[in-house]
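User: What would this chain look like folded?
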Amino acid sequence: MNDNGRNTHHNLILSALTVVGDVLICVLLYTLFWKASDDLTTAGFRQSAVVVTGTYFICVITGGVILYKRNVRDFQVLLLVLRNILLFTVASVLLLNTGGFVMLSPLAFTAFLLSQLILASTFRLGIRQMVKAYRTYDSHKRHAVFVGSKDNIRALYDEMASVPYFGYAVMGYFDYQPSPNFPENCPYLGTPADVEQYLRNHSEVHELFCCLSSRHEADIVPIIHYCQNNLVHFYSVPNVSNYLHHRMYLNMMGNVPYLSLMRDPLERVENRLLKRLFDVLFSLAFLCTLFPIILVLVTIITKLTMPGPVFFRQKRNGINGEEFYCIKFRSMKVNAEADTLQATKDDPRKTKWGNIMRKTNIDELPQFINVLLGDMSIVGPRPHMVKHTEEYSKLIDKYMMRHFVKPGITGWSQVTGFRGETKELSQMEGRIKGDIYYMEHWSIWLDIYIIYKTVANAVKGDKEAY
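Assistant: Here's the prediction, encoded as structure tokens.
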């Protein structure tokens, strides 16, 4: 068996052991918690345990195993375990309830889930550490060569050399002439015409990374053919670093590959549907339960403390820059500068009651109506006044990118310190960076975390809320 086949074999074994270990932890924990519940019968345990074990196994299998992948970070391993536990929680509770099976008490089941989360995370991280240690040994490394010596291939070399557990040993590079880009420990091996002979003499080479431009097709095609017929992985590294200094993402349109400037999870239809479903259900639940009570209280206090309407409507920019009317509880006296001047800390336009609403985010609650109408999402970049969009789009690079997604009642920037008045341009630049980070890293779990942080900040009070 060659090295590539051996690695695949090892990865399959590692995946199988990980799944088996996860499921065994689940079975043992469920057994322990069942036995600790004196009022549950053995007969009921067998049926319940089969449902729980089978459900957890399916959740783990569908989640996959990423421990053996070279560029996986520890936090990604933890996120996958969390995903498995959350999916398992929903599925197992539904199945046990609808099937009429005997169940652990809610408290015991919650303790079981938390224990499973902790032990499964510890188990997987332990295996991950062993994989990292295994790959740091020279005898277990993947041997690679480069063809070309542009900045992008040098950057790839730096990544491979700086992280030992990626498990790469770079043997050198080929180009039409030696390049000062590479250090001495990455030697010049010859011209592209010498690649085939070198690979014949060095069967230990596993991977070849090529960054030659398409005008060198005559040299590239024979290298590709040799790699395909001799179990060497060929990778093409696009040379865009001369005009782009930004991470790129590979996409496919049918059989045609293309690169994008940013990863955009919400471009996928299923993600947009999931986010919209979450928005609608969450908004309906809030508007049909708590909001009517809050509306009555706010209306009474507002009418007693200041003249004018209860609601405040302001034109703002939404997805694709389209304008919509954002609805809020009015927290200021009626004034001519409401659509042009941002609220400040000691703004004389605010009332005492308005200040309380702003501190606790109560003034934002009518925006759930905007969410239900489809103008906004619960989580996303905060919508700005039209005047501010016109001004900042001319001053801040990438400002308009935030309009690729729906604006939100709360957002990543707001829970990471960029809420409130923007006295300096750098504050707005920080907010825009946070908005772009959110767009690139969106997940339903990130939305839930941001909602949690927003509620926590409202309870303890946010000093930037004014």
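The two ends are 67 Å apart (CA to CA). If you want, I can go into more detail on any region.
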